[in-house]
Amino acid sequence: MEFIVLLVTPLLGALILGAFGARRWAPDANVGFSLVTFLSACALTSRVVAHGNLSVAHEQFFIDAFNVFLVALTAFVGLTTSLFSRPYMRIEADHGRVSGGQQRLYHSMYQLFMATMLIALTTNNMGLMWVAMEAATLSTVLLVTLYRTPASLEAGWKYFILCGVGISQALFGTILMYFAAEKVLGSEGVSALLWTHLNAVKGELEPSVLGLAFVFLLVGYGTKVGLAPLHNWLPDAHAEGPTPISAVLSGLLLNVAMYAVVRCKVLVEGSLHSSLPGRMLMGFGLLSVVLAAFLLWRQRDVKRLFAYSSIEHMGIIAFAFGMGGPVANFAALLHMTVHSLTKSSIFFAVGHATQKAGTQIMDDIRGLITLSPTVGWGLMMGTLAILGTPPFGVFASEFLILTTAMKQQPWATPILLLALGVAFAAIFGRVQSMVFGETTAKRLPHPPALIPVFAHLGLVLMLGFFIPPYLADWYRAAARLIGGE
Amino acid sequence: MVGVAGLLRPWSIGFVGRTLFPLGALIGAALAVVAAIALDHPAEQLILPIGLPDLPAHLRRDGLSSVFLLLLGAASAGISIFAAGYFRRGEGTSPGLICLQYHLFLASMGFVLLADDAYAFMLAWETMALSSYFLVTTQHRIPEIRRAGFLYLVMAHLGAIAILLCFGILQGGSWRFTFEAMRAAHLSADGATVAFCLALIGFGAKAGLVPLHVWLPEAHPAAPSPVSALMSGVMLEVALYGMIRVGFDLLGFPLWWWGLLPLSLGLFSALYGVVFAAVQTDMKRLLAYSSIENIGIMFTGLGLAMVFAGVGMRSIAALTLIAVMYHALNHAVMKSLLFLGTGAVLHATGERNLGHLGGLIHRMPWVAWLTLIGVLAIAGLPPLNGFVSEWLLLQSFLLAYQVPHPFINMLLPLGAALLALAAALAAYVMVKFYGVIFLGQPREKTLQQAHDAGVAERLGLGLLAFGCLLLGFFPSTIISMLSIVTQQLGLGGLPANNAPWWLFVPIPERQSSYAPLVFFAVILAVVALAIYGVRLFYHQRIRRGAAWDCGFGGLNSRMQDTAEGFGQPIRHLFQPLFAVVRHVPDPFDTKPTYRLEIYDRIWLGLYQPLDPLVRRVAGKVAWLQQGRIANYLLYSFVTLVVLLALML
Amino acid sequence: MNAFDWTVQLLGILLALGAAPVLLGWVNKCRAWLQNKSAPSILQPYRGIRKLFYKDAVIAQNASRLFRLAPYVVFGAMVTAAAVIPSVATRLPITRAADAIALVGLLATARVFLSLAAMDVGTAFGTLGARREMMIGFLAEPALLVVIFVVSLTCATTALPIIAERLSAQSFALNPSLAFTAIAFTMVLLAENARIPIDNPATHLELTMIHEALLLEYSARHLALMEWAAALKLFNYACIGFAVFIPWGLATSDAPMGLALSVVVLCIKLTLAGAALALIETLSAKLRVFRAPEFLASAFLFAVLGLLVRLLLGA
Amino acid sequence: MTMHPLSWDLQVLNMLAALLLLLSFAMLSQRRIVALVDLLALQGALLCIATLLLAWRTGNNHLYISAALTLGLKVIFLPWLLHRLIRRLGVYWDTEPLLNITGTMLVGVLVVIFAFGLAQPISALASTATRNSIGIAVAVILIAFLTMITRRKAMSQVVGFLSMENGLFFGAMSATYGMPMVVELGVALDVLVAMLVLGVFFFQIREQFDSLDLKNFESLREDQ
Question: Do D222 and B629 touch (CB under 8 A)?
Answer without folding.
Answer: no
